[in-house]
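About this split. The held-out portion is used to measure sequence recovery: a designer receives only the structure tokens and must propose an amino acid at every position. Recovery is the fraction of positions where the proposal matches the reference. Here is one held-out target exactly as it appears in the evaluation file.
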């Protein structure tokens, strides 16, 4: 297996590998997992695999989960169909820098995403290294966010465009989750900046140590959250991947964010994603 690093901070392409082989080859799978922990996101070309092989490879990382808004393939539970139709106003709605499903108490470990159909130009996806984002924060910001926690919401994101009854039902099914602003990666021990577009507010900011007067609470917390979420926008932390049919991306959802670039109407873009259940951030 050849590993070609794509940027200085995140991303590598695996060459000479067939993911279908890793379903049964323990040594190959272990090497792929080690490279994922090192590079955060891995890319492969020319992976002409079946849906069953796609699911079986992802299941080597752990149990798969369904998405409550985006439908799964009827014959392959856990294989989410991300099909974008340029004629649909909803499907034209993209995107923001995010870590998948942080509105869950236990957000996903990661995902395996395969391209079925894509435009000849456009429709790239970008990833950002949130370990690097935390590492390069000024010391005074690190001190300010130590021990800070934040709320993450599906209601305020996926639910926002729904009629109020459906939106409230969605929130009842998936109540807002609370996570540390800086999580510890459970396998590497690295510190990760863990706020994104699903994050609505800090839950323990308003203390005597942080707030002198009431104005500090409203402006101070929102300005800090905006500053932290903007760290994913920094190019030095990013990699950008151009899709082709049968290309695959595997990413560690615990240490990265991603952004699907919506620049390709009137073309279609069809992707299928298997997402692996994760653990509660600490």
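Reference sequence for scoring:
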């Amino acid at each position: 297996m050849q590993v070609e690093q794509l940027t200085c901070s995140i991303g590598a392409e695996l060459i000479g590998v067939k993911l279908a082989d890793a379903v049964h080859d323990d040594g190959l799978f272990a090497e792929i997992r080690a490279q994922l922990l090192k590079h955060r996101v891995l890319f492969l070309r020319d992976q002409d695999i079946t849906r069953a092989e796609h699911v079986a490879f992802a299941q080597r990382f752990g149990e798969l989960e369904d998405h409550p808004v985006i439908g799964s393939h009827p014959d392959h539970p856990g294989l989410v169909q991300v099909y974008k139709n340029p004629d649909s106003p909803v499907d034209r709605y993209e995107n923001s820098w995010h870590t998948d499903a942080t509105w869950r108490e236990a957000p996903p470990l990661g995902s395996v995403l395969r391209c079925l159909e894509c435009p000849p130009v456009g429709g790239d996806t970008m990833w950002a290294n949130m370990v690097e984002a935390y590492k390069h924060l000024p010391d005074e910001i690190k001190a300010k966010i130590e021990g800070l926690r934040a709320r993450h919401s599906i209601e305020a994101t996926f639910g926002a465009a729904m009629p109020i009854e459906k939106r409230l039902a969605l929130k009842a099914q998936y109540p807002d989750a609370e996570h540390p602003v800086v999580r510890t990666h459970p396998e590497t021990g690295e510190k990760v900046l863990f706020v994104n577009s699903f994050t609505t507010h800090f839950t323990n900011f308003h203390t005597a140590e942080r707030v002198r007067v009431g104005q500090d609470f409203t402006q101070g917390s929102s300005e800090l959250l905006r500053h932290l979420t903007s760290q994913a926008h920094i190019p030095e932390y990013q990699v950008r991947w151009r899709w082709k049919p049968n290309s695959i991306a595997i990413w560690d959802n615990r240490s990265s964010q991603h952004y699907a670039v919506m620049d390709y109407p009137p073309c279609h873009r069809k992707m299928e994603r298997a997402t692996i259940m994760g653990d509660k951030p600490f």
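Annotator remark: The chain has seven helices and 16 strands.
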